[in-house]
Amino acid sequence: MTVHPQAQGVLDRAATMDAPPFYRLSPTEARHVYDSFPDFSAAPEPVAHVEDVTIPGPGGPLEARIYRSGAGAVEAPPLLLYLHGGGWVMGGIDPVDSPLRALANRSGAVICSLAYRLAPETPFPGPLEDALVALSWLAGEAPGLGADGERIVVGGDSAGGNLAAAAALSARQGRGPRPAGQILIYPVMDFDFDTASYREHAEGFGLTRESMRWYWDCYASTEARSDPLAAPLQAADLAGLPPALVISAEHDVLRDEAEAYARRLEAAGVPVTLSRYDGMVHGFFRMAGAVDAGSELIDEIAGWLRALPGA
Asked: Is there a catalytic annotation at residue 252?
């Protein structure tokens, strides 16, 4: 299937910026370019309660944003720790504010969006350590947030999906509370730049192969990449992990590794839902203002959260 016309429109508009590739820039310069790209999110929805907080982190206070819709819940809703994308180098809580507002309203879940420390200033395993600290903090704070501490979910998109999967693996090893679920939105799962999806979509579809090489170089040394907590697809065994919702985009270099991880989870006996969005490109979770599939994805995640046991 060709790129959906709505997604192609986003790619065409982004191309008019004529921005240099990230891998030719310093991390500081790349962040400036990233922040200057057009925002394709839907207009931010009002949410009953939105609060910026700080979480004690291993390297100092971490910024986070809490969303609570209070959407007619008759019991404590699940609690989602959300980890943003941006190749571990860029991004933050503001770029994902709009989709998370919509997700809070549609799911009824309490959402905590975390601004973890960024690479290369804080390489692997620093961002993962931040996520684990935030999970433990949320487990203690759940009652005060009006959420169900037994139904804490970890999720994220792209590099954030990588951190979410790694957090679930870490919890299985006894590091922090075990999540009740994991939401992996076109996640970075490995460092194989020669999969079919990498070959088919190396250039011209938003996220490029060379940018992914650069992200990995910023995040983890060659030696560190063999650690499953850096590249979860390297894990020898995925048994005992929490139920997963895995999202892939057809025209994305990361498509094959996301889908391979979902298949391995299923083979290990983990309940998993894999949804490939045909015609879509990397990043469409934040494109609901221009791409219908962005809103459809928010609906799918909301439904998955509502269906968690106990909901």
From this structure: yes
